[in-house]
Design goal:
Helix content: under 10%
Strand content: 35-45%
Shape: globular
Number of domains: 1
Largest sheet: 5 strands, mixed
Structural class: mainly beta
Number of helices: 1
Number of strands: 32
Length: 429
């Protein structure tokens, strides 16, 4: 049975769902335009010999994790910090909002990006509060919708938010505001990281007459689809000054039947936004709704793909089988979303821990909808531990927490419910 997938597009308003399998998309007649999901029989790659690892949670009886990584699967309540509410003013810095990102400083200090409070919290290696900085706003040193942390230099921390990076410098035991870096090359970047010499982002890139279209141009409607070019690449390199350098190669090409000023263009995998991780000579990109990790080398070439085979999308990413039935990524028939009782998964975090890449999938299960009753929602996190060099699966587990950050053998675990808490794990060599 041949299965093709159509991804609804938020960027292109059109009336078809592709045309022609050979071009990388199919015609289902009416509805939404989208790109074919790269299944085994419909993967258009620039390299036919591309290594593809198929990763999944272990079945019963399989070895779950190597001993050296087993500590990552357990959240230690006894050593965790984080309070539901503060008993006094001295403990208020341990009442966390939703933690979006984290970094571990060279001296072992823990830096937490708190999205609810728009601040960065600095904790000691023993998780005692040291400093809180930022605050909501758009002025110098203020944060407005912060999304990620990145080291721009050994003593410079960047806080990325759409359109800009607020840079803070470490000195005399505290961070002080240093400068702002404007990011205009991408109108709506998602994942962000830095190799130390350049910055990298995921997202769709637009241009007009060869010049990038910035966020203001997109939000202000200063161009139309007929005027702007949408580029197929989804991983982009920018200089440390925020200027566009290049885009990495596109792993999948789906040519859409869309005429852009006489030039046909290709669009890479839809929902291009997703998590990103960097090291000195490698960049890893996660495709949120696709459930894949792509590794790029320092030349920007695709090195390998790791595909989560048990992701199981309903609803937002759908597939049609030969019988005309709408099915999830796993092949099971989708439950009617109006009745509830379905699971929505997406890959939302990549965390590098030494030579291990933790690809993390969040699964929200929405219970049945009963008249007069509130729908229940439960969340689990699936973590796939990959060899960062090859993409080979080392182990996988389900848990009630995520791996938020890692440096050397020190790892920060994050538990969001019933209220945000973190704990530290130190892996054995």
């Amino acid at each position: 049975m041949r299965i093709r997938t159509c991804v609804p597009s938020l960027l292109l308003i059109a009336t078809a769902c592709g045309v022609g399998a050979d071009a990388g998309y199919i015609q289902l007649g009416g509805g939404i335009q989208g790109v074919v999901h790269p299944t085994e029989d419909a993967r258009l790659s620039s390299r036919t010999d591309m290594p593809v690892s198929r990763i999944a949670l272990p079945t019963e009886g399989d070895a779950r994790l190597p001993d050296a990584l087993s500590a990552l699967a357990t959240f230690d309540d006894a050593s965790a910090v984080g309070l539901l509410e503060s008993p006094d003013d001295n403990a208020s810095d341990l009442v966390f909002g939703t933690l979006i990102d984290a970094e571990i400083a060279p001296d072992g200090n823990v830096l937490l990006l708190d999205g609810d409070y728009s601040v960065v919290r600095v904790l000691s290696p023993t998780l005692e509060p040291i400093q809180t900085f930022g605050g909501e706003g758009q002025g110098p040193g203020e944060l407005d919708g912060p999304e990620s942390l990145m080291w721009l230099a050994p003593d410079e921390l960047g806080v990325f938010q759409p359109g800009r990076i607020e840079v803070f410098q470490w000195g005399d035991g505290a961070f002080e505001y240093a400068r702002r870096v404007t990011v205009t090359a991408l109108p709506a970047p998602d994942g962000a990281c830095t190799t130390g010499e350049s910055m990298h982002f995921t997202g769709i890139r637009f241009s007009m007459d060869g010049a990038p279209v910035d966020r203001a141009g997109l939000a202000g409607g200063q161009f139309s689809q007929d005027e702007a070019t949408i580029h197929p690449e989804t991983v982009h390199e920018l200089g440390m000054d925020g200027e566009y350098v290049r885009s990495y190669s596109t792993p999948y090409l789906g040519e859409l039947p869309y005429d852009n000023g006489g030039d046909r263009f290709h669009l890479a995998i839809n929902h291009s936004g997703g998590p990103l991780a960097c090291d000195i000579d490698r960049v890893w990109a996660g495709y949120s709704l696709l459930g894949e990790v792509h590794a790029f080398d320092e030349e920007g070439s695709l090195a390998w793909i790791a595909r989560v085979t048990d992701l199981g999308h309903p609803g937002l990413l759908y597939t049609w089988n030969a019988a005309g039935e709408r099915v999830g990524r796993s092949g099971s028939i989708n439950v009617d979303l109006e009745r509830g009782d379905f699971t929505l998964p997406w890959m939302d975090r990549l965390t590098l821990v030494g030579d291990v890449m933790a690809a993390q999938v969040t699964r929200n299960h929405y219970g049945p909808i009963a008249e007069g009753e509130r729908q229940t929602v439960s969340t689990t996190y699936s973590t796939y531990l990959l060899d960062a060099e090859t993409g080979r699966l080392l182990g996988a587990f389900d848990a009630d927490h995520q791996i938020l950050a890692g440096r050397n053998r020190m790892v920060i675990l994050y538990q969001e419910a019933p209220y945000p808490r973190i704990s530290v794990v130190r892996l054995e060599d």
